[in-house]
Amino acid sequence: xxxxxxxxxxxxxxxxxxxxxxxxxxxxxxxxxxxxxxxxxxxxxxxxxxxxxxxxxxxxxxxxxxxxxxxxxxxxxxxxxxxxxxxxxxxxxxxxxxxxxxxxxxxxxxxxxxxxxxxxxxxxxxxxxxxxxxxxxxxxxxxxxxxxxxxxxxxxxxxxxxxxxxxxxxxxxxxxxxxxxxxxxxxxxxxxxxxxxxxxxxxxxxxxxxxxxxxxxxxx
Amino acid sequence: xxxxxxxxxxxxxxxxxxxxxxxxxxxxxxxxxxxxxxxxxxxxxxxxxxxxxxxxxxxxxxxxxxxxxxxxxxxxxxxxxxxxxxxxxxxxxxxxxxxxxxxxxxxxxxxxxxxxxxxxxxxxxxxxxxxxxxxxxxxxxxxxxxxxxxxxxxxxxxxxxxxxxxxxxxxxxxxxxxxxxxxxxxxxxxxxxxxxxxxxxxxxxxxxxxxxxxxxxxxxxxxxxxxxxxxxxxxxxxxxxxxxxxxxxx
Lengths: 220, 250
Ligand code: HEM
Ligand code: FES
Known about the structure:
Chain A is an all-alpha fold and 220 residues long. In chain A, 73% of the residues lie in helices and 0% in strands. In chain A, helix 2 packs across helix 4, helix 6 packs across helix 8 (153-180) and helix 8 runs antiparallel to helix 9 (188-215). Chain B has two domains: 3-110, Roll (Ubiquitin-like (UB roll)); 117-244, Alpha-helical ferredoxin (Fumarate Reductase Iron-sulfur Protein, Chain B, domain 2, Orthogonal Bundle). In chain B, helix 5 runs antiparallel to helix 6 (194-207) and helix 5 crosses helix 8. Chain B is elongated and about 60 Å long. The structure holds protoporphyrin IX containing FE and FE2/S2 (inorganic) cluster.
């Protein structure tokens, strides 16, 4: 298809799939804050997630629809990113002898940051969805599983590194997506950058509050 | 001023090429960068050596021929063309690195000269308006609203020097292509080909081997004519609009 073949088309796929994931992250982060209100509220919320849409939808259907949509977004985002990156690297086969990095840190770390987040995603699902690598790993008891995960040094390290990567990724990603979707403009760029920074900060701080809460004993 | 120059020397497109060091003495701060290179070349010719090949034409900042990368910056430390860059932007005793534009779509021809004809092919695929030629049209036949005229003029300033491609870490030609798309698509004269123009020019840009845009903003930082980054966003908007319409005009 002409659209998918072009660099602008692939970037559009990245922008739309990124927006879907970003929307999901906002809800996910807010849901995670339930951990501060105790096991009943957190576990009750996780149970409710499985009953959303009933009786129109069957038990857990809403969850599965969301999972399929998110999987499609992840696959589309990663495929376009991979193909575009290959093109970009091939377009500058010989570098400059006189080098200096002049783009921002968030901009420079988009590719490796994306890979780190993808690896985190695998760990995260094995940890808190399937419970495979979780020290507690009890289905239907996310509160206890979260507390157990953040009682390990590796759990804390993985989550903190990943959340910082997510923040940086959103910081440049949101701004870039807005440009790709044609929302950029001379006066609007400052607003877009401020929104990107605000969203990145909100999500990073919100997500990080959970492991920090467990580490400091606020959540037990 | 006495300067040490490290210049990329490459005999022809196939040869490997290397940075070669030269000393130049008694350079006036009022010389342009190209005049400084002329001084070096005169010496090289007297010594019986091959002069450094570099592109240039107007030497007044309007033709876009003279681009080289100076100390890692396209057109050097000032936001202007290399021919309009003066040696007073440097210090006595400086070491200056001079390299050609680097992009797969801009192969090196010799030393600092690259082949920028990929730009011509992008223009050829849609960077024009189809109009009957012959006698001049009546000036009031097609009124152009003032804001459209201003946008068109601003983007028409692009001289096709290629600094945007040279500075972009992805070797992307999005700023160049968008300047022409926005220039013509904002005018009533460009309206009949509004959709095919953007689709065809983006296709050609991709086919020539330029990279994609990751919104680093490097292109607009080095553009001697100040083409804004927002022109890329406007082109994306035009591209999505044309795609929605299946490439057909209104
Ligand atoms: C401190 C940060 C985080 C915590 C404590 C956390 C916690 C959780 C928990 C408990 C679940 C399981 C929910 C349930 O089954 O009811 C979950 C699912 C999920 N999380 Fe996170 N999460 C965090 C950050 C993230 C981030 C940054 C991402 C995205 C990059 C993410 C992506 C997902 C996805 C995609 C699922 C759904 C997996 C599935 O159900 O198939 N999480 N998270
Ligand atoms: S020589 Fe024409 S722009 Fe520099």
